[in-house]
Amino acid sequence: MHFAICCLLLLCPLSGISPEAFGAARPQPVFSIDRDTLRQGEFLVATVSGSASGPGLRFNGKRYPMFRQGDGGYRALVPVENLTEPGRYEIVAGDGDRAQRIPVTVVSNNLPVQKIWLDEKTNSLKATEEEKKQVRQALRTLSGEQRWNGAFDYPSKGRKSSPFGVKRSYNGAPVSSYHKGIDIAVPQGTPVLAPADGKIVLTGYEANRFHVHGNTVIIDHGQGLQTIYLHLHAIDVETGDTVKKGEAIGTVGSTGISTGPHLHWGTYLYGTSVDPELFVRKEY
Ligand SMILES: [Zn+2]
């Protein structure tokens, strides 16, 4: 269909005349963000209306494709990585040859730094190449359909034994990582439920070289949003399965590097970890 229209235009004697020549200027797209100040580990909602082509935006050196919404506009949930230096930044939103610059301020989440001292033996327990590669790849999924609807439920209800974002320094070195999710302390065998609709994009097993993550499931919720479940005892789903909110995907365990039964629940936007509870508190 698109091809046929192009051919018609080429054959048409008026094809060299742009719509502007008739006074019908291209509509100016309107970009907006839901807030201009946010903490490390949070995300902002960027929307655009009146854009005919797929707009995109850049923030802090990374490009974020935007996804088409039911109202005809486009949207991106743009993560602010937990170790982003506080300060002033710019979102550069573009639609073809036009760009708009929107200032954004990142402030510290003031989370404490946990100083961890590891002996040589524990320090050598690093994630295998296989688990790192498979997890990274699954967390880069960019599927156009928004599968989730409404606020998320907790995948397991229990005491939060470790919050999101606590910064970590190993053996006296500068902060190099942080807790990329929340830990929920619940007994082994407790069901883990999908917090929202989605599609399984990874199942990884401790027996299959997932030595650090342990038995792992990743759900793609669409439009750059994924959730991850670590240290599971059993896994009840397979890659490619679609799951509904509330459906069991496995049970809580202590596989991989874990000091006792708990669920590690992480949430990622475009491969960057954000606080999962943001999706429980509010609907996006
Ligand atoms: Zn954890």
Outline of the structure:
By secondary structure, the protein is mainly β. Helix content is 10%, strand content 40%.
Give me the secondary-structure topology.
Blueprint: H1 2-11, E1 30-33, E2 37-39, E3 43-49, E4 56-59, E5 62-65, E6 67-68, E7 74-79, E8 87-95, E9 98-107, E10 113-116, H2 120-123, H3 129-138, E11 159-162, E12 167-170, E13 177-178, E14 182-185, E15 191-193, E16 198-204, E17 215-222, E18 225-235, E19 242-243, E20 248-252, E21 263-269, E22 272-274, H4 277-281
Parallel strand pairs: 2-9, 10-12
Antiparallel strand pairs: 1-3, 3-7, 4-5, 4-8, 6-7, 8-9, 11-14, 12-13, 14-21, 15-20, 16-17, 16-19, 17-18, 18-20, 18-21, 21-22
Zinc ion binds at residues 162, 179, 181, 183, 264.
Give an account of the 3D structure.
The protein has 284 residues and is mainly β. The chain has two domains: 5-107, Sandwich (Immunoglobulin-like); 113-281, Distorted Sandwich (Glucose Permease (Domain IIA)), CATH 2.70.70. The protein is 10% helix and 40% strand. It contains four helices and 22 strands. The strands form four sheets. Strands 11, 14, 15, 16, 17, 18, 19, 20, 21 and 22 form a ten-stranded antiparallel β-sheet that branches. Strands 2-9-8-4-5 form a five-stranded mixed β-sheet, with no helix packed on it. Strands 1-3-7-6 form a four-stranded antiparallel β-sheet, with no helix packed on it. It starts with a helix and ends with a helix. Mean pLDDT is 88; it is low at 1-23. The structure holds zinc ion. Zinc ion is lined by residues 162, 179, 181, 183, 264.
